[in-house]
């Protein structure tokens, strides 16, 4: 019997291996307080990475995603600090994010500007708007009940934020694998011209991609602002390149057409374990960035040669058959 493990399964085994290794060789890694800390940190990063993955499947990238999260957090914070309730504040925060996502989607899908250029521009734009609103200061002082979203537990065991992440993991998997829109996302990423000629409205597909990515950014922002009880312009900014790295390490093709939810989540876990373990070892924070950057370069290089080998093999197959 010739059993072959998928990319995602191999990545899951690597994540388990890193977890076991860190538990054995890093002091306090397996302590209950540290495990709890990682469970609270995981959702905010995981949601941003899922949003980035969906965009990369189309062959694009969203460099503005963390600033969309920050903009969303500022919108919610302004509502709460001006006497509005938690629910209206959350709704306004989500609407802020969706407006940003719609702007990205319109410029990319309707005008046809490359995603990397659009989102690079909107990254600077959203940052400037946030700075204009906040004057570079943090907004804080939210209701105590709001902090339960990012710091509370369900039944005293599972963080509420982790349950929110699990919900969006399942939802994203269903949308990508079971819905018509999800199939069209993969089709567009594989060959946008063929998708257009098959009768699919590419602009609608792309618009929904950027809206969904912005929704995930908004949910991440709600979790982060409730955890920290404050929001400022750099909210979640460290997750920008990490989310790209997690999506690519998780098997998402940087050119589009392929990507799996569980692969991205396994990659998020790997980065979480590495970052947490190095911090406990007393390593400088810049070393974590070096490790993540090195992993990204190695994975991109491996994927490049792997794709090149696969193409050559496919080209030679008909000749051998002839």
TrEMBL record:
It is a multi-pass membrane protein. PANTHER family: ABC TRANSPORTER PERMEASE PROTEIN YPHD-RELATED (PTHR32196:SF21), ABC TRANSPORTER PERMEASE PROTEIN YPHD-RELATED-RELATED (PTHR32196). The keyword Cell membrane applies. This is Simple sugar transport system permease protein/ribose transport system permease protein/rhamnose transport system permease protein. One of its GO terms (molecular function) is transmembrane transporter activity. It is found in: Cell membrane. Its main location: membrane. GO terms for cellular component: plasma membrane. Keywords: Cell inner membrane, Cell membrane, Membrane, Sugar transport, Transmembrane, Transmembrane helix, Transport. It comes from Salibacterium halotolerans. InterPro entries: ABC_transp_permease (IPR001851). Pfam families: BPD_transp_2. The keyword Cell inner membrane applies. The chain crosses the membrane at residues 12-30, 42-61, 67-99, 111-133, 153-176, 209-228, 286-305.
């Amino acid at each position: 019997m010739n059993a072959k493990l998928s990319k995602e399964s191999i990545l899951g085994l690597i994540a388990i291996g890193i977890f076991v290794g860190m538990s054995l060789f890093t002091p306090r890694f397996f302590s209950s307080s540290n495990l709890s800390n990682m469970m609270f940190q995981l959702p905010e990063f995981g949601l941003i990475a899922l949003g980035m993955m969906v965009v990369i499947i189309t062959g694009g990238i969203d460099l503005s995603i963390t600033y969309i999260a920050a903009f969303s957090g500022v919108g919610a914070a302004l509502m709460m600090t001006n006497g509005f309730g938690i629910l209206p504040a959350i709704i306004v925060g989500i609407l802020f994010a969706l407006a940003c996502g719609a702007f990205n989607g319109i410029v990319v899908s309707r005008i046809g500007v490359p995603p990397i250029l659009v989102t690079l521009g909107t990254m600077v734009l959203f940052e400037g708007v946030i700075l204009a609103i906040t004057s570079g200061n943090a907004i804080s002082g939210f209701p105590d009940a709001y902090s339960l979203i990012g710091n509370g537990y369900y039944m005293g065991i599972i963080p509420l934020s982790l349950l929110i992440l699990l919900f969006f993991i399942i939802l994203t998997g269903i949308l990508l694998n079971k819905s018509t829109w999800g199939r069209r996302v993969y089709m567009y990423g594989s060959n946008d011209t063929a998708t257009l000629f098959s009768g699919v409205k590419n602009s609608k597909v792309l618009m929904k991609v950027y809206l969904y990515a912005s929704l995930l950014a908004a949910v991440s922002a709600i979790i982060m602002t409730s955890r920290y009880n404050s929001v400022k312009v750099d909210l979640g900014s460290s997750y920008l390149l990490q989310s790209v790295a997690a999506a690519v390490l998780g098997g998402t093709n940087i050119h589009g057409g392929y990507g799996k939810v569980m692969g991205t989540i396994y990659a998020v876990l790997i980065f979480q374990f590495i970052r947490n373990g190095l911090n406990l070892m007393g390593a400088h924070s810049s070393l974590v960035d070096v490790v993540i950057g090195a992993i990204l370069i190695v994975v991109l290089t491996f994927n490049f040669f792997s794709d090149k080998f696969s193409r050559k093999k496919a080209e030679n197959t008909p000749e051998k058959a002839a």
